[in-house]
Amino acid sequence: MRDKIIQNKVTVAIGIVWLFHITALIGISIGYQDWFVSKTSLNLFICLLLFFWVYPMDNLKKYAAFAIFFTGGMIAEWLGVNYGVLFGTYSYGNNFGPKLDGVPYLIGIYWGILTFISATLATYVASNALIKIILAAGLMVFLDFFMEHSAPIFDFWSFDGGSAPIENYTTWFAIAVIFQMILHFLRQEGNTRFSLHLYMAQLIFFGYGLLFLR
After folding, report:
1. Measured between alpha carbons, how far is residue 53 from residues 50, 68, 110, 189 in Å?
2. How far apart are the C-alpha atoms of 179 and 162, rounded to whole Å?
3. Helix runs in the chain, H state only
4. Under DSSP, is residue 92 helix (H, G, I), strand (E, B) or coil?
5. CA pair distance 31, 8, nearest whole angstrom
6. Which of 61, 91, 106, 115 could bridge to 179 as Cys pair (CB 3.0-4.6 Å)?
7. pLDDT tens-digit map of 123-179
8. Separation of alpha carbons 70 and 110, rounded Å
9. CA angle, 111 as apex, 39 and 102 as ends, to 5°?
10. How many other C-beta atoms can be found within 10 angstroms of the C-beta atom of residue 100?
């Protein structure tokens, strides 16, 4: 009975994730890009609530890890935005929600969510610790590639010169490896089905921006 309830929760959460992402894609496609993109912060906040609801975030270690990833991500982004180190020289636009000294809170949340779901997907396909860590970090950077190319279109962020430098991706990978090592050390697992759908929804959304809105 308990397993059935969990499965139903995951199904509902997945449905909500796709509802918001597909609705946004349709709205953007028919000419309402500004309105839908301006609601990105709401979309990501809903994804955060769903993540906490079904991942599951069921012990203090997971919350502590999420706090580490959020804080670490915010610090790295703060250094990037204010000093041009780590990722290159860039700034955030107006569609990624409230900011702390130029860095949106949502980017810290995004670092946390993406670390967890990538680790879960990597664990599903690999058993060796090193391979899982490298694969999970690779999944994070793979999605970041699509994000970086779509972000200026959606006024999320933009780099001086128009495109992200190679150091952006190498730094992303280095930080992702550190985060994945922490998560592996804590031996925390999540829901594979939800992680896959949330990752794919993000990939399709940013992939659409890269392929069709440039």
Report:
1. 5, 19, 16, 14
2. 28
3. 2-29, 33-37, 40-54, 60-83, 105-125, 129-150, 166-186, 192-212
4. strand
5. 35
6. 115
7. 999 889 999 999 999 999 999 999 998 888 888 899 998 889 999 999 999 999 999
8. 8
9. 65
10. 12
Which residue range is the domain that position 140 belongs to? 2-212
- The pair of structure tokens assigned to 199 is 């990752």
Give the max Cα distance, the chain: 56
Number of C-beta neighbours around residue 78 at 10 A: 17
Q: What is the DSSP letter of 31?
A: T
- What CA–CA distance (Å, rounded) separates 107 from 15? 24
Report d(CA 39, CA 37) in Å as an integer: 5
Backbone angles phi, psi at 144, to 5 degrees: -60, -35
Quick one: CA dihedral 149, 155, 157, 160, positive or negative? positive
Region 50-79 average pLDDT: 93
């930080």: which residue's tokens?
175
> Measured in whole angstroms, how far is the alpha carbon of residue 61 from the centre of its chain?
20
Would you state the structure tokens that stand for residue 79, as one six-digit string? 């250094």
Question: How many Å from the N-terminal Cα to the C-terminal Cα in the chain?
Answer: 48
Burial code (b: 16+ CB inside 10 Å, e: under 16) for 18-37 equals eebbeebbebbeeeebeebb
The whole-number pLDDT of residue 212 equals 60
Domain count, the chain: 1
Contact 102, 141 (CB under 8 A): no
